[in-house]
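INSTRUCTION: Work out how this chain folds

Fields: amino acid sequence; protein backbone structure tokens

Chain under study, with its fold:
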Amino acid sequence: MLLTPRHELDLRIGRLQAALRDLGLDGALLHSTTSLLYFTGSAQQGHLWVPANGEPRYLVRRVLERARRECALPGIEPLTTLRALPDHLGGARRIGMELDRLPVAQFEVYRRHLPGVDAADVGPVLRRLRSVKSPWEVERIRAAARAADETYRALFAALREGMTELELSVVGEGAQRLAGAQGMIRWHAHNAFESPAMMVLAGETALAFSFADTPFGGEGLTPAAPYGASRRPIRRDEPVCVDFPTVVDGYVHDQTRTMVIGKLPRQLVEAHDTARQILDMVAREARPGATGQQLWERSVDIARRAGLEEHFMGAGNSRVRFVGHGVGLELDEWPILAPKQTTPLEAGNVIAVEPKFFFPGVGAVGLESTFLVTPDGAERLSITPEELGVKDA
């Protein structure tokens, strides 16, 4: 089965080759699952050799037959040992590698098998290339948005007083998979791949912050997995936050919605309205030339004018310093809406914007929707309504 069409792969490889020539590199040797999927359309184990000029080679350790079915590129060859790598590099002496995600011990293995070859880190180049989505990629994210909407409808329909966070999470996870989601999330950040696909946090458990640099943590079920839903029952008149990245064909759509059985305190309703104002601001102002720092500062200003700055994006020492992040094949892509992020946005960036407000002893409210940056502003790719989900019984 071919997933990614040949013209899409050729476009991506061509952009990478232009970047390699600009850097004075002879080629790039890529190994991460994300890079293999992006440049070949297949996630089988192996390496991709992309010369600065010429045809790439997908060097597969396991499983060659699947790689040939899944990848539209012609140069797919077996590679059973790293000792054979020099035969495929054509005498290259200065190459790019993903040093930002390569353990030192493994890098030393490459050095032994590639004597006389110098390696430069092309990780930032790859992240920049992937940050601009093609129309084909955007359609994959739209499909994930539709699956996310189906998931939210199932969550809202199942919500009832007395059920546990875990029980509601299981409903959401099942609905998500049946809607076409793949049930796994790729991260770029080191040691962040353990996060669940479904976050259900009721009341004060939304302030149970955890290891990941994300607004929500959750109690989880055990210190071995200190993240996500717990066995705490859901009560009336308290916020229930559901944060669920949904991945279809490898592409992430990220979304958060807040629900309640009964009625929320006025301060929380006003905070939820403020989160909607921040999303509306991003829809207007996230266009080419704007920066992540500017959008962060505008978000903080909206929270400040609403008297909610101390509740914005966490509480106490557990506040995070961003309000949005890129999504694509990974959950934590570029660009980032945060201080010191001064690289201008580009048309084709896809960003998940997640304004959230935390109230100690009470809970949290917030939203997250996914946007496509266009010359006229940001287009909402999320289709689930952003209103507070209120259930009477």
Q: What stands out?
A: The chain has a mean pLDDT of 96. The longest strand covers residues 45-51.
